[in-house]
Write a structure and sequence with these properties.
With 318 residues, the protein is α/β, with parallel strands linked by helices. The chain has two domains: 162 residues, Periplasmic binding protein-like II (D-Maltodextrin-Binding Protein, domain 2, 3-Layer(aba) Sandwich); 96 residues, D-Maltodextrin-Binding Protein, domain 2, CATH 3.40.190. It contains 13 helices and twelve strands. The strands form three sheets. Strands 2-1-3-11-4 form a five-stranded mixed sheet, with helices on both faces. α2 packs across α10. It is globular. The termini are far apart. 44% of the residues are buried. About 3% of the residues have low confidence.
Length: 318
């Protein structure tokens, strides 16, 4: 190989070749790599998770360090969280609390937004008051949701026994079509799927979540504790970046709607109507222990938990 090269010229080449061989052997034996750390973040296409697409669009850090993982149903996301497949996830508050009760290593870091849930009834359902819910079928996202709890709260306030109303679980994107096909009489869900019934001309928003439960909390951002121990700086920067987007969304709702519609694959007019009607708020999204403990107590009241677990909140990112 080096027969036509002088000894003086061949020496540096041999040294370089030997360095390459040693390096390859080192990686072959130890399995070490220097791949860049990234964050896998779970979400659903709902406005409670809008912070993520806005951050992905506006913050270069997110483009370089975050891999958004889309889910179409809560059960699928729950399995991924339990399997340690995600570093962070936007997930319903009661699910997060239930995971903690099962000793799944997660902590709460941020709220998705406040309010932003609608109780929808079909135009042809004959429902004009809560008393008319008796014997009707309503869809909920999952039993472990504040949407379900808000419906139970409304029934209780009106003296209606829970077993007088049929509740079925449906993924949020499937609810408007189920209403249109008369498979259900109504549903309670996070936006934009409440407003979608209005645009389709098939339903009306009977009540907003703020009418039933002031300062309503739907989704939370949870962080995997194992990921936190390995990627703390990355995760802290991620959470701070999300929180900053809340103020921007409040001041730029139409632009935020464009970003969200493109990212979620939703109708632009639909998302814009939700945001400009101000049915959602992206301010005051730092979690408070008192509010989360109260959700836990309500879960016990409605037999979703036997006891309130220690609800961990991660605050060191601030």
């Amino acid at each position: 190989m080096f027969k036509n090269i002088s000894p003086e010229a061949a020496a540096p080449l041999l040294a370089l070749l030997w360095l390459i061989v040693i390096t390859l052997l080192h990686y072959g034996v130890t399995g070490q790599t220097h791949t860049k750390q990234r964050l896998k973040v779970g979400y659903l296409p709902i406005t409670c998770h809008l912070l993520l697409p806005v951050a992905m669009e506006r913050d270069g850090f997110f483009k370089e360090n975050v891999d958004p993982i889309r889910f179409s149903s809560w059960p699928d996301m729950i399995e991924s969280v339990k399997g340690n497949e995600l570093d962070c996830a936007f997930i319903l508050a009661p699910i997060a609390i239930s995971l903690m009760d099962q000793s799944v290593p997660v902590v709460i870091a941020l709220l998705g937004h406040r309010n932003g849930t609608g109780l929808v009834v079909a135009k042809n359902s004959g429902i004009s008051s809560v008393k008319d819910f008796v014997g009707k079928t309503f869809a909920i996202p999952i039993r472990y949701s504040t949407q379900n709890m808000a419906l139970l709260m409304l029934l209780g306030k009106n003296g209606i026994a829970v077993d007088k109303v049929n509740r079925v679980e449906l993924p949020p994107p499937d609810m408007p079509s189920a209403l249109a096909s008369n498979s259900i009489d109504g549903y309670i869900v996070g936006e934009p799927y409440a407003t979608q019934a209005l645009i389709m001309g098939k339903g009306i928003i009977f009540k907003n979540s703020s009418d039933i439960w002031p300062n309503f909390i739907s989704s939370l951002l949870i962080v995997n504790k194992d990921s936190l121990s390995k990627k703390r700086k990355l995760i802290d920067r991620f959470i701070r970046g999300l929180k900053r987007q809340g103020k921007w969304i409040e001041a730029n709702r139409k632009k935020a709607a464009d970003i969200g519609a493109d990212f979620f694959g939703l109708n632009r007019d639909l998302v814009e109507q939700v945001l400009t009607a101000r049915r959602v708020s992206y301010l005051d999204i730092v979690p408070r222990q008192r509010e989360l403990d109260e959700i836990g107590k309500m879960m016990v009241q409605w037999h979703l938990l036997k006891k309130v677990p220690k609800i961990g909140i991660y605050t060191s990112w601030q």
